Amino acid sequence: MKFVPMKKLMAHAMKHGYAVPSFCAWNAESMATILAVCKRLRSPVILMAGPGEFPVLSPAANAAVARTMLARYRVKAALHLDHGDSPALVAECVKAGFTSVMLDYSTRSFEENTRALAKVCRLCGPKGITVEGEIGAVGKTDAATVEGSTGSRLTEPEEAAEYVKRTGVDCLAVSIGNAHGAYVKLPRFDFERLERIHEKVRIPLTLHGGTGTPEADLRRAIALGIAKVNVATALIAAYRESLLTQWNAGRNLWTPIAQGEAARAMAPVVEEWILRLNAQGKA
After folding, report:
1. Which residue intervals of the chain are DSSP H helices?
2. Which end of the chain is more exposed for a tag (fewer CB within 10 A), N or C?
3. What is the 3-state secondary structure (H, E, C) of 166-227?
4. What is the pLDDT of residues 128-150, one digit of tens each?
């Protein structure tokens, strides 16, 4: 079984009123846990990795391990470069076999962002690879979070429409009050802004910073064009908490055993998010 383009998964999600979960996956254990839950719940999924995960597995190694895991679990899935920070990294991931890529130039000028993404689309379009861009800037809640800019800038609907027209991107990450990391208080989404973006931009929209978002807000966002929701912090927190609990208790000091238990601790988080996004039974 092969990874599919992300836009194929998102098109089905938009048609049937749900969002595809996009989970941070940095090693074989995390991939196996995610795919096993998705298989059980018959959910499509996006495995994502980026500059914050590649110190563990390079793009080529990540793709090779992901393909091995997919062959075992046979889930409808895409392999995505999240927050790519350079055209060179995008090209490396394309060569490795990623079926979707994001070049995040959201903190650059509109013109620089547009020119760079247009080039990525010209590279990826003929290969059937999905391209994600970002207009506005999705910030982060803390200094520990890898993704996101130091400050947020909300997406302007007119600017988003011009960006899509000039680049040809397949999906668009939006900033509507969301942020990467663990929210210290409930986010307040600008749904009127999201509605205007959805009216002007008739491609799937993506929500970064899913962790901590109230379920009612997720349902409303999905109805307004959100077809992909990124989940990373909740997975990392479950993994880290398991390791700390084991080691503080003097258990599983043999690291591979501890890592196996930590990976399994992520399974309830994966299941929770599949159900919250109404993605169960959609694969």
Report:
1. 6-16, 28-41, 59-73, 87-96, 110-124, 157-167, 191-200, 215-223, 233-248, 255-264, 267-276
2. N
3. HHCCCEEEECCCCEECCCCCCCCCCHHHHHHHHHHCCCCEEECCCCCCCHHHHHHHHHCCEE
4. 999 999 987 565 444 544 444 55
190 is catalytic: no
Contact status, residue 204 vs residue 10, Cβ threshold 8 Å = yes
Q: How far is the C-alpha of 269 from the C-alpha of 115, rounded, in Å?
A: 38
243: its two tokens: 């390791």
Q: How far apart are CA 258 and CA 29, in angstroms?
A: 11
pLDDT digits (tens, 9 = 90+) for 35-54: 999 999 999 999 999 999 99
In the chain, the amino acid numbered 3 is: F
CB of 139 within 8 A of CB of 149? yes
| Domains of the chain and any CATH numbers | 6-276 (3.20.20.70)
- Bridge-based pairing of strands 20-24 and 205-207 is unpaired
Q: 171-216 pLDDT, tens per residue?
A: 999 988 766 455 445 567 889 989 999 999 989 999 987 777 888 8
Q: Active site residue: 82, 104, 170, 217, which one?
A: 82
